[in-house]
Design a protein that fits this description.
Mean pLDDT: 87
Structural class: alpha+beta
CATH topology: Alpha-Beta Plaits
Number of strands: 5
Low-confidence stretches: none
CATH class: Alpha Beta
Helix content: 25-40%
Order of helices and strands: EHEEHHEHE
Number of domains: 1
Distance between the termini: 11 Å
Number of helices: 4
Radius of gyration: 15 Å
Shape: globular
């Protein structure tokens, strides 16, 4: 683990998929998601190390205090970002018939000391259809 992280916090790799795998993650929507994540970071002390999109899903590399369970982190992140996206971009809600932004499931793993953050970042960047782009990156990494 790099020294820039608080050693008591846990690092997670989280993948969230847009409902119906709709391609709604344009630059305006991703900007809203990033700004919401920065608000979460301030209020809940969850550090977003990197956020990246690949057409219809988002990877989050984040660090959170152990007082939050993985389920709490995901629930918080998905509910707050969805609410803000629908508030600022009502046309997205129209495209997602049922009024939900995220699919029900998610994939989340802890980043261990045996697998470096660089290896996780490389994995994320090389997965998918080649359209992955970083939309937030913590500058000191």
């Amino acid at each position: 683990m790099k020294n820039s992280h608080n050693k008591t916090n846990l690092v997670y790799h989280l993948l969230c998929v847009v409902k119906y795998r709709k391609n709604v993650l344009d630059s305006m929507v991703t900007t809203t998601i990033v700004s919401t994540c920065l608000e979460i970071q301030e209020k809940y002390h969850i550090q977003f190390i990197e956020i990246g999109t690949d057409v219809n899903y988002i990877h989050f590399l984040l660090q959170a205090p152990p007082k939050y369970s993985p389920t709490q982190i995901v629930t918080m992140l998905k509910s707050l970002t969805a609410r803000k996206v629908f508030e600022k971009h009502p046309e997205v809600k129209q495209q997602l018939w049922g009024g939900e932004f995220w699919s029900d499931g998610y994939w989340m793993v802890t980043v261990s000391q045996n697998v470096s953050e660089k290896e996780i970042k490389d994995y994320v960047r090389n997965k998918g259809n080649g359209k992955y782009k970083v939309i937030l990156k913590k500058s000191n990494l």
